[in-house]
């Protein structure tokens, strides 16, 4: 394995629910992978992050160690598409709404933010009200074409690949870890022209969550499908095997 | 300072002169763009390096800070120059997933955006306008906080590519004859970050002051404050002076 630094970006499935599991960054899958290869790492993931926020995490955080790396690897763990990125007035940084359900839009004036979020869907759901949002969550109902949220994911992937241009020594890998349906293959429309860099090609095009989805012994709690320590080890094993074979490609 | 190319980011003050005139016969507005007379072009010629100009008219400071993510240049040691702008532009993510910015926060700006993008952003305008008010956290407005984070973000490009050099400063401003940024706001930045601000060579005035004169000889017209070719040359001269001062 040729990389000398691992930078991981993502949502809670990469952040590793550190406040509950209590093993710190070293106990997350990036930490386990870095320990296996004896390389330094940073885990910039944040629970609830949208794909847009995930793509921009390397620019929002201070990562002094990264600057010393000669051949860094950046892994982006994508998530569900329907989280709305927005700017926080109090901090000036990009943040994301956990979902477009009103109770998850807790910053500022919910009325306007909700309408703004729904604007991303109006092409397909022009008259959706709160009840319908719950019944017809866009992630659960496949539809033709792509809406604003999938466009946002597509743009996010494009941004992720740009880090290879900004730092020609860096390698980039991305793919879905968390998704609305862990047993459904990832949306192929979003992959082109960067599919060679998508780690899901080594997981039968399924999000990594499918590794832990069916068996509760890998879950954080009975009703919480975030990976526990055993689940995290499965994700880490996937990346270790991937990186040991031809540096992940 | 060692660099093999320039990546210029900014708004209409970086994009190069644009002249508009009404054709009374054809009854439409004629637009003549002069990207060859943008300040990055003059600077690149003086420094004898290639350049890319990623600026976009109407860009907010936040959008400007993300412009390098669009580059296709393959400079190994880029000099990244960020020309910041007026604060009142709100950055948001459009339905196409791309970051864009409102030109301002007036009703007419929202209406313009609506007709331009069919994006119904007026639905969110009350939320966006709240960025103009002081926040509870630190007393600065949301726009101030967006600016601070934009500057911190641009300095992070040096951490992502250690061969890159970042410089930044205010070019376009609503405050021409005073220090654009308050001393309190500047306290958010490290000494290194402040040492990369090219406004130090203009006594902390925005560069727009260099193209503002009584005879309007350095701007597009009496009513259009954007710099013309000669104004852009003055911007380039001063940025070059700054580069020399830190080399």
Helix-strand sequence of chain A: EHHHEHEEEHHHEHEEH
- Count of helix runs of chain B: 9
Give the overall pLDDT of chain B as a whole number: 89
Q: Could you state the CATH homologous superfamily of chain A?
A: SGNH hydrolase
| DSSP strand count of chain A | 8
Strand order of the largest sheet of chain A: 2-1-3-6
In CATH, the architecture of chain B is 3-Layer(aba) Sandwich
How is the biggest beta sheet of chain A arranged? Answer: 4 strands, parallel
Number of helical segments with 4 or more residues of chain A:
9
Tell me the distance between the termini of chain B: 5 Å
Proportion of beta-strand residues of chain A: 5-15%
Percent of residues in helices of chain A comes to 25-40%
Q: What's the number of domains of chain B?
A: 1
Query: In percent, how much strand structure appears in the residues of chain B?
Result: 15-25%
Q: Return the structural class of chain B.
A: alpha/beta
- As for the number of domains of chain A, it is 1
Please name the CATH topology of chain A: Rossmann fold
The average pLDDT of chain A is: 83
* CATH classification, class level of chain B: Alpha Beta
């Amino acid at each position: 394995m040729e990389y000398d630094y691992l930078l991981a970006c993502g949502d809670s499935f990469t952040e590793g629910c550190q406040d509950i599991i209590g093993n710190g960054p070293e106990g997350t899958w990036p930490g386990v992978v870095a320990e296996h290869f004896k390389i330094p790492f940073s885990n910039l993931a944040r629970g609830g992050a949208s794909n847009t926020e995930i793509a921009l995490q390397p620019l929002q955080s201070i990562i002094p160690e990264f600057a010393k790396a000669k051949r860094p690897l950046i892994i982006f763990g994508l998530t569900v598409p329907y989280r709305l990125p927005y700017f926080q007035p109090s901090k000036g940084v990009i943040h994301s709404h956990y979902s477009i359900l009103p109770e998850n839009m807790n910053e500022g004036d919910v009325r306007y933010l909700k309408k703004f979020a729904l604007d991303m869907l109006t092409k397909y759901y022009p008259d959706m009200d709160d009840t319908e949002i719950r019944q017809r969550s866009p992630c659960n109902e496949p539809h033709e074409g792509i809406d604003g949220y999938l466009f946002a994911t597509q743009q996010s992937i494009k941004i992720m690949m740009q880090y290879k241009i900004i730092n020609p020594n860096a390698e980039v890998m991305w793919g879905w870890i968390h998704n609305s349906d862990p047993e459904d293959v990832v949306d192929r429309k979003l992959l082109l022209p960067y599919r060679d860099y998508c780690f899901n090609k080594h997981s039968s095009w399924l999000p990594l969550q499918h590794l832990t989805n069916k068996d509760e012994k890998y879950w954080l709690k009975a009703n919480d499908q975030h990976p526990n320590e055993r689940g995290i080890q499965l994700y880490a094993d996937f990346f270790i095997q991937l990186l040991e074979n031809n540096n992940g490609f | 300072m060692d660099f093999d190319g320039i990546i210029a980011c900014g708004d209409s003050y970086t994009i190069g002169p644009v002249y508009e005139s009404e054709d009374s016969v054809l009854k439409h507005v004629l637009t003549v763009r002069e990207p060859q007379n943008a300040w990055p072009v003059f600077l690149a010629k003086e420094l004898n390096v290639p350049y890319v100009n990623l600026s976009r008219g109407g860009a907010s400071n936040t959008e400007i800070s993300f412009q390098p993510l669009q580059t296709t240049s393959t400079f190994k040691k880029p000099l990244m120059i960020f020309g910041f702008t007026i604060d009142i532009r709100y950055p948001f993510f459009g339905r196409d997933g791309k970051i864009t910015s409102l030109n301002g926060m007036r009703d007419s700006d929202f209406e313009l955006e609506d007709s331009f993008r069919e994006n119904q952003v007026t639905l969110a305008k009350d939320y966006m306008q709240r960025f103009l008010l002081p926040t509870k956290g630190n007393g600065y407005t949301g726009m101030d906080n967006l600016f601070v984070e934009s500057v911190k973000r641009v300095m992070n490009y040096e951490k992502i590519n250690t061969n890159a050099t970042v410089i930044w400063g205010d070019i376009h401003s609503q405050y021409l004859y005073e220090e654009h940024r308050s001393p309190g706001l500047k306290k958010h930045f490290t000494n290194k970050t402040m040492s990369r601000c090219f406004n130090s060579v203009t006594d902390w005035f925005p560069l727009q002051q260099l193209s503002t004169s009584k005879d309007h000889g350095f701007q597009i017209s009496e009513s259009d404050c954007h710099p013309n070719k000669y104004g852009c040359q003055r911007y380039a001269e001063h940025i070059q002076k700054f580069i020399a001062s830190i080399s």
